[in-house]
């Protein structure tokens, strides 16, 4: 069993599927010879050939259009956008075709494709390299949106995404690509989609997060434990469709909830979770739901980036506020 980082787990999952399913192909800018900007496809072109791991021109709309065509004809393309900020030329094909294919053809055609994109801030990259716009895609019926927060879940969720008969947007939080290593068995076992994962059980407050913010959330949970506060930590993992049952069940137990996201606050996934808790679990809440988020501005460049990103201290402040309500 190998001990790997998140990005290495992504590579491992794609390697497994290329080796076990001849219909799987990878395509994108520099994914072949160079192995991708973050080396997520390193060595795969050499192992499987340039007809399975395909270097494309710098043309995101073309990549998405080809992926949709391949998927409707029985292939399982994994298309990479080098950064989430480069995914927008793909949107027409993703929204107008991939997401609608099953409905449009009344089930005669499906669209089993994966769009992979490194996303989020924290690496001091220029504009268009630090987007956290998962809510855009979570709003689109017919799409799954999956965000891993650990090597184990990256491996299992990506396998499930590739095997899904419908399109999946798979967002990889690049800030934690190399944050930690876990033992991941390369056994082809997938993780279930469409569900949240309870990472740590607790009694006093529910912390809900996903992607790179798991790092600060777990740090906050550790500090709370030192203060005698028991925090339950939930990894949303599949942000669409959203598993509200797991979140609501946790809040029914703890009575308090803090939602943590890197993305801007307005019209975000945290807004949706909070609204659902108001609909489904208002009488379970002993305090208003708090949200710790990015700000409603473009991610500031370089020196100001840390000011934008939610911190452990901001999470602790929000938790203390909900605990103060009797």
Automatic annotation (TrEMBL):
Limits of the Transketolase-like pyrimidine-binding domain: 4-178
SMART domains: Transket_pyr (SM00861)
TM regions (residue ranges): none
CDD domains hit by this protein: TPP_PYR_E1-PDHc-beta_like (cd07036)
Any Pfam family: Transketolase_C
Alphabetized UniProt keyword annotations: Oxidoreductase, Thiamine pyrophosphate
Cofactor dependence: thiamine diphosphate
Signal peptide: none
Role description: The branched-chain alpha-keto dehydrogenase complex catalyzes the overall conversion of alpha-keto acids to acyl-CoA and CO(2). It contains multiple copies of three enzymatic components: branched-chain alpha-keto acid decarboxylase (E1), lipoamide acyltransferase (E2) and lipoamide dehydrogenase (E3).
Family matches, as PANTHER family: PYRUVATE DEHYDROGENASE E1 COMPONENT BETA SUBUNIT, PYRUVATE DEHYDROGENASE E1 COMPONENT SUBUNIT BETA
Name of the protein this chain belongs to: 2-oxoisovalerate dehydrogenase subunit beta
């Amino acid at each position: 069993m190998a001990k790997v980082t998140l990005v290495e787990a992504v590579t491992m999952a794609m390697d497994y599927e290329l080796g076990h399913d001849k219909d799987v192909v990878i395509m994108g800018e520099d994914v072949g010879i160079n192995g991708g900007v973050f080396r997520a496809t390193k060595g795969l072109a050499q192992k499987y050939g340039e007809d399975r791991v395909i270097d494309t021109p710098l043309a995101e709309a073309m990549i998405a259009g080809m992926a949709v065509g391949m998927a409707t004809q029985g292939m399982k393309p994994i298309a990479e956008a080098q950064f989430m900020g480069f995914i927008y030329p793909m949107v027409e094909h993703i929204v107008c075709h991939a997401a609608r294919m099953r409905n449009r053809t009344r089930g005669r055609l499906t669209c089993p494709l994966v769009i992979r994109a490194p996303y989020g801030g924290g690496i001091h990259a220029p504009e268009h390299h630090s987007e956290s716009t998962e809510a855009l895609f979570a709003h689109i019926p017919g799409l799954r949106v999956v965000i891993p927060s650990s090597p184990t879940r990256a491996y299992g969720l990506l396998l499930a995404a590739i095997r899904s008969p419908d399109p999946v947007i798979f967002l990889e939080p690049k800030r934690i690509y190399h944050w930690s290593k876990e033992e991941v068995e390369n056994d082809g076992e997938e993780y279930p989609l469409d569900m949240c994962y309870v990472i740590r059980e607790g009694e006093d407050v529910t912390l809900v997060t996903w992607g790179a913010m798991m790092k600060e959330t777990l740090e906050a949970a550790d500090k709370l434990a030192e203060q005698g506060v028991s925090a339950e930590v939930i990894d949303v993992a599949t942000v669409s469709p959203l598993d509200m049952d797991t979140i609501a069940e946790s809040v029914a137990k703890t009575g308090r909830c803090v939602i943590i996201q890197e993305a801007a606050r307005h019209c975000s996934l945290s807004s949706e979770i909070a609204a659902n808790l108001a609909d489904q679990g208002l009488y379970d809440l002993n305090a208003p739901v708090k949200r710790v988020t990015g700000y409603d501005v473009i991610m500031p460049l370089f020196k100001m980036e840390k000011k934008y990103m939610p911190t452990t201290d901001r999470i602790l402040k929000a938790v203390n506020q909900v605990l103060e309500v009797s």
